[in-house]
Amino acid sequence: MTCKKLTGFLDENAVKYLTIQHSRSYTAQEIAESAHISGNDFAKVVILKADGEMIMAVLPASDKVDLKLFRKVLEVNDLIFANENEFQDHFPGCDLGAMPPFGNLFGIRVISSQTLCDSVTISFNSGDHTELIQMHYDDYIRLVGPEVMDFTLHLRAVA
User: What is the pTM of this model?
Assistant: First the structure.
């Protein structure tokens, strides 16, 4: 079931979006394939700790976080992937591993990959493992206001 906090936020802001059902999937690339969406346009969420601060990285399913580059771009000394136990309680109403890229709704700093800027639409987990949301990328940027940075290994998917 879609995270009600998310859909309420989208509805309050009069954002047009689609919800798309898909077979139960756990990796971003599997979800994109299941829903027939390019991995370039499916945004996955990765939770990290930057000098102890929890941050949300949002990047295409087809890309990977380059920790060395990201550490340099963020100008931090310590950058590690957060353990699920460390962030599971930060996303009420969402299944673990299916958090939407709206860290602003959960009090978490959001950093979006520069590679997503090429997308007209963006698709992402809705808060569970069987449904996704698709909306205009410009609306996502307007509502979330993420910091946009280049921190990924670009493994562009074939559309």
Answer: 0.91
